[in-house]
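Could you join me in thinking about how sequence relates to backbone shape in a protein? Label the sequence line and the structure token line clearly, so we can match residues to local backbone shapes. Once you have written the record down, we can walk along the chain together.
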Amino acid sequence: MKKSTVILIAIGLIIIFTIIVYFGVRYARGNPVTIKEPTESVTLAADYIDKDINLDKGVSMDIWDNIEAVEIELLHQVMVMPWSKSLMSPLEVKAFHNNSNIYFYLSWKDDTKDITIDIDEFTDASAVMFPLEDEIQPSTILMGFIGGANIWHWKASQDKEYWSVVPAETDNYVDSYYPFEEEELFAVSKEKIESAVSDLIAIRVGTITHKQNQNIQGRSLFEDGIWHVVFKRSMDIEDPETDLVIEPGQEKLIAFAIWNGSNGDRGGRKSISDWVELNVNN
């Protein structure tokens, strides 16, 4: 083989290798997306309604059918890696309170019902986030980036386990128990499920933790390719430093996030909203 031919082949292999490395690095943690310009601000009203929802009886659509919905366009999470691979949008949100509890209803389309966590299997999920501090940067919605944030995190897998009283199962014994034992020996490896929703707090990026007092309830309904998720929280609080203060006549900021398990969403890979103004009306 001629020396010139060998050189050409070598150059070609180097170019191909460089292209592979470039695309591997660029797309390994998600697909880069174009950041949209901020849309007009959205306001969500939580009016007083003299009704209560007993989640033990399921998600009652009768109450929500009579409440006006707000449609919220979601965005790719591109502030930190991993970037989201897909976009779940729009999100439909409703809210009301009865002076004792406040309720939020979230609804979005999803082609698959992902309720299992296993190797390469991820659950559908949603979250509601409130800043705990009055002085914030409205343009920043990353969890805990600009101060304390209270996050209500619903997971379809957790919903199934809590309401169906079905223990989480996996072939990976690290998440269940040692295969030669009849029961879990190390309780620390499996958190006790107290609700379908986790009540979380974050002070800055990477500090999200479960609050000592879990104060949120939730339940879901998946029907005709649509998730319907209801959050319920008492308006009474135990710790004003970690519990969100919600009172009639207040205006709050609120943000939302959706995870699509079948597309590999988990952690920072999700669809998010911009800040929404919440008016808790008398």
The radius of gyration is 22 Å. The longest strand covers residues 101-109. The chain is about 15% helix and 30% strand. The mean pLDDT is 82.
